[in-house]
Design a protein that fits this description.
OB fold (Dihydrolipoamide Acetyltransferase, E2P), Rossmann fold, four-stranded antiparallel sheet, 15 helices, binds iron/sulfur cluster
Length: about 425
């Protein structure tokens, strides 16, 4: 078996010190028409149609969600093709040939600051819904649902912790665009009438803290603080961030809104700024290309829909034959291994890791308890694994497998190199 959780040396150092590269003019983009919430779609365009940046091309449809699909380049519709998405699933994508003119759709217009200040909660929630904004840290939860909370929110927490090894795309976003982060946070505070804002960042990230504190000086009229949190995994897990950044412990399984807290990933915060200020959906994002098997790891600002193969070429390609490597979307702890590199960047693609394959032979469980001690949500991974092996649904339920946040720590620490997380994930599926 191959364990992707075993290669966690601090490759962030390779990318975060470098200026981010812009690669915003691919010849084609491939826009996903389906995802795990929406398994069907409708199209408003056909082959040969001309489209512009920010234009609605169709709609992803599911039982509870309908999400517009926006063009991320201007150009011509070429048709529907299959590509791998961020979950490694082959999905239908709309292929657009870029005309390199970057023409924006008529709907993309700036809102004056005074106009934004007068906007109601409903106005902002409607825009965020219409622009199909989702959590960009990987969860892809619709942002408008969070913003539409009826609970009294006292603090909005922006999560800039980025605790997974190898990833530095949020780091580069903050270094390049701190103003967008603060303005996005202020828009969120306005929406939910929150008096306080907190940006949580690892205390070891000195350069980042300097940039954020300098920016904080510009927004003295607002109660915004930078919270410097510990540097460990999984500090970026929302509950851990809340506890460390604002001192409030949100029990696993409960909504933070009940405790007066609302959390957003830092990239999501920037996307809210773009939607409210410029009426722009998510057309570009930062992502990290990293790992021990890519020649030139770096952070890149790309169009959503860009081919990952093309980005690997931009990083001077693979060090070895691709068939001997692992391609992972996301971090090494929580990411998904892809069956091939014929994948595309979606709104939630934080990183692509190219790792040398290492075979790990699983040994029998030695009942060392390491997985139990390391679990951040205090469940017993080894017991869940054993219940899953027995197909014992009742026990899996009693052992609260549903609380698992899939952080990957139980597999990482396992003395016997067992993929414990995979078993717990199976347990979650077993109990629905
Ligand atoms: S992946 Fe393992 S360690 Fe992490 S929350 Fe789930 S059971 Fe606990
Ligand atoms: S860490 Fe591995 S070997 Fe130790 S108890 Fe858990 S599953 Fe068994």
């Amino acid at each position: 078996m191959i364990s992707k959780a075993k290669r966690v040396s601090d490759y962030k150092q390779l990318t975060k010190q470098l200026p981010s590269v812009r690669y915003v003019d691919p010849e084609f983009v491939y826009l996903t028409l389906m995802n795990n919430r929406c398994t069907d779609y409708t199209l408003e365009v056909e082959e040969g149609d001309s489209v512009k940046v920010g234009e609605i091309l169709g709609e992803k449809c599911g039982s509870f969600f309908e999400t517009p699909v926006y063009s991320t380049v201007s150009g011509t519709v070429e048709g529907v093709v299959k590509k791998l998405d961020q979950n490694g699933l082959e999905v239908d994508c709309l292929k657009i040939r870029n005309n390199f003119k970057d023409e924006t759709h008529e709907s993309i217009t700036d809102r004056p600051d005074a106009f934004i200040k007068a906007m109601s909660k409903e106005d902002i929630v409607d825009i965020v819904k219409e622009k199909a904004l989702v959590g960009l840290g990987g969860a892809a939860f619709p942002s408008y649902i969070k913003l539409n909370t009826d609970e009294a929110i006292h603090t909005v927490v922006i999560n800039a912790v980025e605790c997974e090894p190898y990833l530095s795309s949020d780091y580069r976003l903050i270094m390049d665009q701190p103003e967008q982060i603060f303005k996005g946070l202020i828009y969120i505070m306005q929406t939910v009438s929150a008096p306080k804002g907190v940006i949580a960042v690892k205390k070891t990230k000195k350069a980042l803290i300097e940039v954020l504190e300098r920016e904080c000086e510009r927004y003295k009229d607002y109660d915004i603080k930078i919270a410097k949190v510990k540097d460990y995994y999984p500090q970026g897990w929302e509950n851990a961030t809340f506890k460390e950044a604002v001192g409030i412990k949100v029990p696993v399984g409960e909504l933070p809104m009940k405790y007066g807290l609302l959390g957003f990933n830092v990239s999501t915060c920037a996307s809210i700024y773009e939607a409210i200020k410029h009426n722009m959906p998510i057309t570009k994002r930062y992502l990290t290309i990293n790992g021990d098997a890519v020649n030139f790891p770096q952070d890149i600002r790309v169009r959503v829909g860009t081919s990952i193969r093309e980005l690997i070429k931009l990083c001077d390609g693979y060090k070895e034959d691709i068939n001997k490597l692992e391609v992972i979307i996301g971090g090494p702890m929580m990411g998904v291994a892809l069956p091939s590199d014929d994948a595309i960047v979606t709104e939630t693609t934080t990183s692509v890791l190219i790792l040398k394959s290492t075979e790990y032979k699983e040994e029998p469980c030695v009942r060392c308890g390491s997985c139990v001690y390391s679990c951040p949500v205090d469940i017993t991974p080894v017991s869940i694994m054993n219940a899953v092996k027995r197909n014992d649904k009742k026990s899996v339920e009693l052992l609260e497998a549903n609380k698992c946040i899939e952080c990957g720590l139980c597999a990482y620490v396992c003395t016997s190199k067992i993929h414990v997380t995979d078993y717990v994930r199976k347990g979650k599926n077993l109990i629905g």
